[in-house]
UniProtKB/TrEMBL annotation:
Cofactor(s) listed in the protein's UniProt record: Fe(2+)
InterPro entries, per the entry: Alkb, AlkB-like, AlkB-like_sf, Oxoglu/Fe-dep_dioxygenase_dom
Keywords of the record: Dioxygenase, Iron, Metal-binding, Oxidoreductase
Cofactor info, note text: Binds 1 Fe(2+) ion per subunit.
Organism: Providencia stuartii
GO-annotated molecular function: broad specificity oxidative DNA demethylase activity; ferrous iron binding; oxidative RNA demethylase activity
UniProt-recorded name of the protein: DNA oxidative demethylase AlkB
Amino acid sequence: MLFSDEDNRLLIVEDAFLLKGFLLGNGQALISALDEVVEQSPFRYMVTPGGYGMSVAMTNCGPWGWVTDHKGYRYQKSDPVTNKPWPEMPTIFIELARKAAEMAGFYHFSPDACLINRYSVGAKLSLHQDKDEMDFSQPIVSFSLGLPATFDFGGLTREAPKTALLLEHGDVVVWGGESRLNYHGVRSIKAGCHPVLGEFRINITFRRCQ
Ligand code: SIN
Ligand code: FE2
């Protein structure tokens, strides 16, 4: 892994970067904006098409939201819990996501979907590819807040070698281009108490899905 001291930007593999501490200084503002989103569209546990309940609680904001149920994985414009459109994507989310994408060399990022994942202790996300989007030309930008997590970043097959990254409060991962479809996953969250988010880890992921 290459590391540039100047801007805390680590190259994981081609076109995939860890921006260490990128959100520090905006943590509180992000959490306030998040609270407003969650007031309108609460966290919920979704079910996979195979009938398994997910250990990560989810909600969305922006024009399109990612959902899963017995019918499959998809993006939709309305929240199935409230039957209303998803809350607007807060300006601070979009601004920071765009800046992070630029830091990784991806210009003009225009996300139309923002998935918010809430991990409690023991929650995890198995190895997967993000491939429910119609547009793979834009990157994925992923914010981490709260409790730390080990993020495995692999390659284009399940078996490809993986880099284990420690994601802490304020970190951002950006991947696109050659690594847009790389497998990745989050290992089970270890017990801990974060000064701001307590026993939770929050991940906010931005994508262009249409
Ligand atoms: C995801 O892969 O969708 C979430 C990644 C994370 O929680 O860091
Ligand atoms: Fe993912």
